[in-house]
Structures are given as C-alpha cells and as structure tokens.
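Human: Respectfully, please carefully check these tokens:
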Amino acid sequence: MSDEGQDNGASRNGSVPEIELIIKASTIDGRRKGACLFCQEYFMDLYLLAELKTISLKVTTVCMQKPPPDFRTNFEATHPPILIDNGLAILENEKIERHIMKSVPGGYNLFVQDKEVATLIENLYSKLKLMLVKKDENKNNALLVHLQKINDHLAARGTRFLTGDTMCCFDCELMPRLQHIRVAGKYFVDFDIPKHLTALWRYMYHMYQLDAFTQSCPADQDIINHYKLQQAKGDIKMLKMKKHEELETPTFTTSIPVDLNEQ
C-alpha cells in the first residue's frame, strides 16, 4: 500500500480524529491515485473537512492488481474506497457516505438537502458510459442535453457551486464525473464539452482552483486507462499495458478553453 501523504489541515495531537481513506491505486503504476469516481468523491469530502481542521486525513492507495498481504488479511476481496475511523472500517459506498454525514466531525454540513440538484446530476455518468460504448450521435446528444441542463441550473442560480457559494457533497460527486467526461470523452469519441456552456465552464474553473479537487484528481492517463481496461475485458492481449503508458509523465487537464472574462 502507498501512503499518499494527505494529512491536510489538522494536527495529530489528539485534538481531532484521524480518518484514513483507502483508495484504488493507478492501474498504470500501482502507486499514484487511480481513476475511481467514488474514491475521488469521498477524498474530496474528507479533504474539505481536513481543511476546516475538524479531522486529520490520511489517504492510502492500494494496487488491486497486486494487493498487499495485510490488505487481503483485513479486507479480503473488498475493493476501495474503504474508510477507517478509530479502527472501525466502513466498506460500502452508501455506508461510507452515511458515516461521513453522521459520524465525522463537520460532515453533516457537507450533505445539504436539495432534491432539484440531486435529480439534476443523477444518471450523468451512465450517459458517458453509453456514449463510450455505443459511439453514436444519439448518445452524444443525450449527454449534451444533460450538460445543458446543468449549465442552465448554474446560470440561473448564479453561484460558484451547485447549491451556493460553498461546496457540498453534490459538487464532490459531480466534478469527478465532469473530469471523466472531459478526458475520456475527448480521447475515445472526440467529444468536447461545448464552449457555449459558459456557466458550466465557469463552475469547472472554480473547481480547478481548489486543492480538494486537484489533490484528489487522477492523471489523464489513469482516467483513459480506466476505460481501456473496461473495454478490453475478456481480451487478454488488450489488457497488456503498453510500455510507453508506464513511462509517460502524468498530465492533468485543468485548462479552460473559453475566456470567462468575455462572458
């Protein structure tokens, strides 16, 4: 297991609890952050709390292709994300979310109630996966319509984030998915988030300025390889990693293709 060294915002003197989050490691090098959406979502949630100094956060990556013996002993075949709080391991996504909300100091404030936003971002990821699998214009259009709705919501509210000017759980859920759409969509089907969706680009710009996102974000190569492996299941030859991918310097797409000052 690899310790990412994320102890942001809180001391270890016992004044705040230490929370450990075990996340999937890169499928390329087995050490850096992998492209698991849920891992990044909970990483962001907890990072925000660490910034507020309500917790001390430790993040550990685990290579699931070759998990270390102590991981197998403690968690058997369970896949990350795994949250450990005072020796208690929480293994399922819904239970992790509930634990952050109810048991982690400050967590309750992240989980705002907003049915409109919850519905708005629902099923966005499934539209990306359909687009990558089907690779036809109709699937592209379905994703575009969904992104337009999110853009319109942001434009109407006029706030930095989905529910206001401070981040909440919905932002930690949405932004990793937008990054996958941006990186994987471009690579596999030459899909670009339209430049005219300026409210959405402004939202992404604000997210790119935040350590909670940049510190938790996987490299472009890891996002791409995540979907390559999904598409290659059952084809052993395709599963073999190309050497140049292992040696390639990680890149992170965080630029904005529009001038927001002109909007």
User: Anything to note?
Assistant: The mean pLDDT is 90. The first helix runs from residue 37 to 51. The first strand starts at residue 2 and ends at 3.
